[in-house]
Amino acid sequence: MIVRKAEEADAQGIFDVETESFSVPWSLQAITRELANPNLTMYYVLADEDGTIAGYAGLWRVLDEGQITNIALKQQYRRQGYGELLLRVLMEAAWEDGCSDIFLEVRVSNIGALHLYRKLGYQVLSVRKNYYSEPEEDAYVMDCKKENYQWITNSYKKDE
Prior knowledge:
Elements: E1 2-5, H1 11-21, H2 28-35, E2 41-47, E3 53-62, E4 65-73, H3 82-96, E5 101-107, H4 111-119, E6 123-132, E7 137-145, H5 146-159
Parallel strand pairs: 4-5
Antiparallel strand pairs: 1-2, 2-3, 3-4, 5-7, 6-7
Helix pairs in contact: 1-2
């Protein structure tokens, strides 16, 4: 498995992951638009040895802030550390690109994702009522400041 910067040709593979992962997936057209706009977006894919897209992570950049759009993996690649790998690559690219904060929304019931985000230095800022549909659910708005991520990363590396 490799993580690499997404290309426009990856749109269908990302769409396949999207439709497997979310009850209300983004359209292929929306994904294609995202990939065609690298001045405002940053996307990475996880690909297996034959080039099949197994997962992806994306971010919108606005001035010195990043907003994670989605992180998703095909079912057979979940709970193996690939989500953390994708998220770390995306975040480190955002930091290198000048972001000082990265925000995201996450379902309040998504315990696995919440654990990962907290591990990487994210903190809950607020709750968005009924943010998600199918099923309807609140979302936590979370933020990670660059200095919090660096501390977590440095601490993690020392423990290895």
